[in-house]
What we know:
single chain; alpha/beta; seven-stranded mixed sheet; 6 helices; elongated; disordered N terminus; disordered C terminus
Amino acid sequence: xxDKHDHxxxxxxxxTISCAHDLGLVMAMAASLRVNCTVVSPPGAGCVMGVPxxxxxxxxxxxxxxxxxxxxxxxxxxxxxAGLGGVIAHVPAAQHRALVSLAQVTGGHIMAQRPASxxxxxxxxxxxxxxxxxxxxxxxxxxxxxxxxxxxxxD
Length: 155
């Protein structure tokens, strides 16, 4: 049997959001450009802002969303139990295995490393976001890890 699936597809670009305004901007831009992207909380936000904050923020969001819980396995477990689909936790191997088991039960996913993501600037966020999403939507587009089209976080 011939496999006709394109296994070379890159994952959707990630954008860090921290408020409803940022989320609205990302959802509107992704819809208008007809591109996929993932929204990601700021690093460690699951510990600082809490799981309920993220749940409230992304409840009506049609885009995939990742809550970064830093090194706190307990917050990551709470996020999975709250029904979040994507959680980031940089934890020891034994805790990671336990979180993976919990994610299998809850239907969520656990990531050990935070993906590269665009931090929206205070000024000109719409323009920077549009450039970033267009660059990732074009076949063969080159990513700019040096922040050429915005500040891309590699935590």
